[in-house]
Design brief:
heterodimer, A: 257 residues, 2 domains, six-stranded antiparallel β-sheet, three-stranded antiparallel β-sheet, B: 252 residues, alpha+beta, elongated
């Protein structure tokens, strides 16, 4: 039981480590770990001294219920907005509101797969397309956004229109989700919409030259580290005392002097 | 446990690279025409939690740390600073100078030029600006906003050449070569030469230099952030290590 607790806490610390290592990743959304106990079990005593009733099958007696440990039930993503910082770079784009950028993230068997991200630290890739830092092309309403050498003179207005030299060339494809639980985290800050729940954004505005920070809160994570270590320690103590009890049973009870 | 250790190691490595990048920017605070670099991060692989020995939820995935997705260059213009020296040139607007060294062509926005013995305009690292040739007796050099170079000598004013500016169909094709020089990968786009002050090209300013395009305050803030994040990751690593120690001490 205590061992399962240690096991779960280990997974928790893995998650906290991941959150902390992403404390400066733009648009990163931290994970929350939900630990639950296993379903309760019924303990039944077989053939105790005060249980001699032959009518009961196998001389059993119900004692009560117990749980046999903890398990990791769920890792959910916390979608609160991170802090905003001004960078002045034209390729840094911040989404004010609940929306997500749509990017083309080809997968095996699905070359046109669309994923969602809030990491707006974009670049213009080798072929002149607007792309995420990880190299996935950002989608506009009519497909990938070709900017060429326009890094210095492209502007994004608050409704997501992409302007080059004052001429509107494209509009960013932004998506909102009324149920964020349909989003699954993938590599490279991408979220996969497994249930097809993407809706056209209506409450999101766009700001160029700003970047959303990670929503990892140092204080929370530190508290998390302490709680988890202490709980881990307590579980370790439990195992040790159980070991001592067993040792007593084996070495002292029934020993001949 | 190993995962927590490797995630925090990942984080520390990433922050170290960020500090390296920031240090590189900051050391170039006086380099004319320097273009800032920034390390951009993205989350590393997310994979299902392998929950051996106890039933877990197959949909549960967790991350493995952070990765440096790229070190990006930003080409936004820097401030133009007056130096008063007649061979300092700044481009106000778009366009790069093209200089040649040993048959190789390079592009730069660092306009600190000098005159060599044979009358060429050269950069401090020995690259020659093409198309300009001065008479040895020239004593006053004038460069107009559209790049026309004239020199005044004992024989009067004479034309010495024309400075061309270069643009690219794709800025991502520019590669850093060190010494403020950039080279262009012709497979990724085309070089478009043009005359200064013509539409789309910047004007040339004599007696000015372009300052680096980063803000000192922003870089310092980033430096503090990187240092804190590094310490933060180190703390996680220690915690993970302590926990592992406890597991090792289960049996005394």
């Amino acid at each position: 039981m205590a061992a399962s607790g240690m096991d779960v806490l280990q997974t928790c610390i893995d998650g906290t480590a991941n959150d902390i290592s992403n404390a400066t990743t733009p648009g990163y959304k931290k994970d929350t770990y939900l630990i639950k106990s296993f379903p309760e079990m019924l303990l039944i005593e077989k053939g105790g001294p005060q249980n001699k009733n032959p009518l009961l099958p196998q001389h059993t007696r119900k004692i009560g219920t117990t749980s046999i440990g903890a398990r990791l039930a769920e890792i959910s993503t916390d979608f609160t907005t991170g802090s905003v910082q001004e960078t002045g770079n034209k390729t840094d784009i911040f989404l004010s509101g609940p929306g997500f950028f749509a990017v083309n993230a080809p997968a095996q068997g699905d070359p046109g797969r669309v994923c969602y991200t809030r990491n707006g630290a974009f670049k213009i890739d080798e072929n002149g397309y607007l792309a995420t830092a990880g190299g996935y092309r950002v989608l506009g309403e009519n497909g990938e956004i070709l900017l060429g050498n326009s890094e210095l003179k492209f502007d994004v207005t608050s409704d997501g229109s992409v302007m080059v030299d004052g001429v509107r060339v494209e509009k960013l494809q932004l998506a909102e989700f009324s149920n964020l639980n349909s989003l699954y985290k993938e590599t490279d800050d991408l979220f996969v919409d497994r249930e097809g729940a993407a809706e056209t954004a209506s409450n999101t505005s766009v700001k160029q030259g700003f970047l959303e920070g990670s929503n990892v809160n140092p204080v929370d994570e530190m508290v998390n580290l302490i709680t988890v270590t202490r709980a881990y320690e307590a579980n370790q103590r439990l195992i040790q005392s159980q070991d001592e009890m067993l040792s007593k049973a084996v070495n002292q009870v029934g020993s001949l002097r | 446990m190993l995962k927590a250790l490797s995630s925090s190691a990942c984080g520390m490595n990433a922050q170290q690279l960020k500090v390296d990048t920031l240090a590189n920017n900051l050391t170039n605070i006086d380099t004319p025409g320097y273009k800032k670099l920034r390390a951009n991060f993205a989350e590393l692989i997310n994979q299902p939690v392998e929950y051996t020995g106890s039933p877990g939820n197959p949909d549960v995935t967790s991350g493995n740390g952070v990765r440096v997705a790229e070190v990006a260059k930003y080409f936004s213009p820097g401030d133009v600073i007056k130096t008063g020296r007649s061979l300092d040139l700044a481009v106000k607007g778009e366009g790069f100078f093209r200089v040649v060294r040993g048959g190789e062509e390079y592009y730069t926005r660092d306009g600190t030029f000098n005159l060599d013995e044979s009358g060429n305009l050269v950069t401090p690292n020995g690259c020659v600006l093409e198309g300009i040739r001065f008479n040895p007796d020239a004593n006053k050099i004038m460069i107009s906003a559209d790049g026309k170079v004239t020199a005044e000598g004992p024989q009067g004013v004479s034309e010495s050449g024309q400075i061309q500016l270069y643009k690219f169909t794709n800025l991502a094709g520019l590669k850093l070569e060190g010494e403020d020089l950039l080279s262009f990968d012709s497979e990724l786009g085309e070089v478009v030469p043009g005359v200064a002050a013509s539409p789309g090209y910047g004007t040339i300013m004599q007696g000015f230099l372009e300052a680096p395009n980063f803000s000192l305050v922003e870089e310092m803030t980033n430096l503090i952030e990187a240092q804190r994040a590094y310490g933060f990751n180190a703390r996680t690593m220690r915690t993970a290590d302590e926990m592992w120690g406890m597991a090792n001490n289960l049996r005394k």
